[in-house]
Amino acid sequence: MRLALASLALVLLLLTALGAGERAIAPGLILSALRGDPVVPPDIAFIITELRLPRALLAMLAGAALALAGALAQAAMRNSLAEPGLIGINGGAALAAMVLLVLFPASAAFWLPWAALAGALGMAALIQILSLRFGMRSQRMILIGLALGAVAGGLSAFLSAMGDITAVQRAMLWMAGSLQDSRWEKLHLLLLWLAPLAALALGSARLLDLLGFEDEQVTALGLPSGPLRAAMLALCAALAGAVVAATGPIGFVGLAAPHMARRLVGPLHRHLLPVAALTGAGLLLLADTLGRSLVAPAQIPAGIVSALIGAPFFGWLVWRHRDD
Asked: The whole model's pTM is what?
């Protein structure tokens, strides 16, 4: 029932996003344009089907993937504050993409998804290696991730200061988490990347439930806790890296969506994961809609809006878990 309500709320938010913007469009015209009704003025049909619809669907797809990545990170690290942006995975993907965008701009169109994926997986592997060296505890892993994310951010800033001004301007817009360059081709490519990863995440629900126990208990059940946590973190990195390649780094969606889903359906991952995906889709769609509507015709990148929304939420979580 709650999954159905969440789906209905997302559909209503999608219709709102299609109608909002510099040029407001009535719901009746939106539905007619989606049906391909020839009586719809050509300019309205173009705005809906070629500009706003692919952008809204890309925001929903990216938000759902970030929510799944956040749920995986929180389960793998047994910490409710874990999230791809906070533990450095997004930073690793962004650094790899920044190197490509600034130093090899001619190759960026083809290699960007691979570079972001490699950067995300490399950062996840580095977190695992350092955590194994210094003791694989969730708090320590998050601190290591924060430190590595800060290093990646510093290197990205260095590249932006030293690179060609034209390439840097394009890269900085991407680094803000912008959905302005949303096209049907990009949506199809991201869907192709994310579909098998999302299927793996949803199929791992029972394993994620078991990872909520201590490592000794997981091992007693016949499961290798260390490799299992590493695999879930790698899957988290793959999801986040694909999104970073398409939209740039966007934070806090992966943190907030799983928490909101737990409030709705509880901690069992077979219920949590689909509701978290719907919640993440709605959060990023809302952030993008606000960003392109509040100060239209100017646009605020969705990554900035999500950070403005998510930072107070993160502060509330830290305060709530101050005694943990």
From this structure: 0.89
